[in-house]
Structure to design on (411 residues):
């Protein structure tokens, strides 16, 4: 099966599911696509069980040829983060900078350690022993809220603006922070186990601070290049150069490309909003990136649903996956509740803010991609089912019910 054939099948399926949802189901597109792909996967598995192997084997072969980690981290992620950041209002984000900063940095780090510790003792209790450094891998990949899932679902539910900006801002930045933590722990676990604490901190700072500074440079020069233009096509080309060439260059410098895309997207979006750029250029630029966002989101959530075809799920994996869901939610509640509880003493928030930030902290394709980056073996055999269970529960159950919780905050 050629790459074009695989891409054609995936794109056609995502469009078909999107159309059926638009006409009949009318739920959030990300949720509908994931659910549809899961149903398709289950039907294929049932057909295979009853001897109809051709269709199942075709889809299984297709999914086995897709390197989900490289496709997302080294391909789609830069586009999706830039598209999401382009619409973030910097002034609104600045008003919530302390909450966003605390949740995206301290909250993510604390959550990583809490998830790792809880996972370590849970698996030990189940007599499935896993070294603490590998539990840290799970903590690092599952702690960040996924900006792709959050932005795809939250912009449709009509949340109060201050609440939406907190969750959107946190998810955009803790995504980059989470990837940096994961890569740092990955180095410790699989590449250089004798790294000192100073080495770890230097690696973390180079990735995170380097990505932010690089993003500032990209945002500054990118906006300077776009502002004199009256041709929206050239403006689109410049942003494409940032999300492709500049993203690849960030990876080669071993700094955080995701953080660079977030920072540059926010800068360009806000500078162009205040500039004398023709309205038609600004509008067409946003329409282009909205379309890119919708297409890539549709493909990503389809792949999340189809990925179950490649995951071995026995009774043991099912149990640890189901137990991982409340574990991650509990840690999310603690890592959100403590800092927000402190801020709440001096600032006024909408009702149920902590509950919404907890339940609305969705996990998505990023966590799944990072778990698939773990080398095949006993470590991935434990972490992958746990991650997949949390991701599917997050997108479908939390995604479908968050609107009801948001409505309480308006009352």
């Amino acid at each position: 099966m050629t790459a074009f054939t695989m891409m054609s099948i995936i794109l056609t399926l995502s469009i078909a599911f999107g159309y059926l949802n638009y006409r009949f189901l009318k739920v959030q597109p990300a949720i509908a696509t994931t659910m549809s792909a899961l149903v398709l996967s289950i039907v294929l598995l049932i057909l295979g069980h009853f001897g109809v192997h051709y269709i199942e084997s075709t889809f299984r072969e297709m999914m086995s040829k897709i390197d989900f980690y490289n496709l997302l981290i080294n391909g789609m992620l830069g586009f999706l983060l830039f598209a999401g950041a382009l619409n973030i209002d910097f002034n609104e984000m600045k008003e919530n900078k302390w909450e966003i900063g605390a949740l995206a940095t301290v909250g993510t780090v604390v959550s990583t350690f809490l998830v790792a510790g809880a996972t370590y003792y849970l698996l030990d209790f189940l007599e499935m022993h896993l070294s603490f450094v590998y539990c840290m891998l799970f903590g690092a990949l599952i702690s960040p809220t996924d900006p792709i899932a959050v932005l795809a679902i939250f912009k449709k539910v009509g949340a109060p603006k201050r609440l939406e900006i907190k969750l959107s801002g946190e998810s955009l930045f803790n995504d980059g922070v989470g990837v940096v933590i994961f890569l740092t722990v990955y180095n410790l676990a699989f590449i250089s186990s004798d790294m000192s604490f100073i080495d770890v901190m230097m690696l973390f700072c180079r990735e995170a601070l380097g990505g932010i500074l690089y993003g500032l440079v990209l945002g500054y020069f990118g906006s300077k290049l776009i502002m004199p233009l009256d041709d929206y096509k050239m403006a689109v080309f410049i942003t494409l150069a940032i999300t492709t060439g500049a993203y690849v260059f960030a990876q080669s410098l071993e700094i955080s490309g995701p953080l660079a895309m977030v920072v540059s997207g926010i800068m360009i979006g806000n500078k162009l909003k205040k500039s004398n750029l023709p309205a038609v250029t600004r509008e067409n630029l946003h329409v282009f990136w909205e379309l890119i966002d919708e297409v890539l989101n549709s493909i990503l959530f389809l792949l999340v649903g189809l990925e179950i075809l490649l995951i071995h799920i026995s009774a043991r994996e099912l149990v640890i996956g189901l137990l991982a869901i409340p574990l991650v939610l509990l840690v999310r509640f603690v890592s959100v509740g403590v800092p927000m509880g402190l801020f709440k003493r001096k600032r006024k928030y909408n009702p149920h803010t902590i509950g919404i930030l907890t339940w609305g902290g969705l996990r998505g394709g990023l966590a799944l991609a990072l778990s698939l980056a773990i080398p095949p073996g006993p470590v991935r055999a434990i972490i992958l089912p746990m991650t997949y269970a949390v991701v599917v529960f997050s997108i479908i159950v939390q995604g479908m019910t968050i609107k009801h919780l948001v409505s309480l905050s308006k009352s």
Q: What stands out?
A: The radius of gyration is 21 Å. The chain is about 80% helix and 0% strand. The mean pLDDT is 89. Residues 371 and 384 are 6 Å apart (CA to CA).
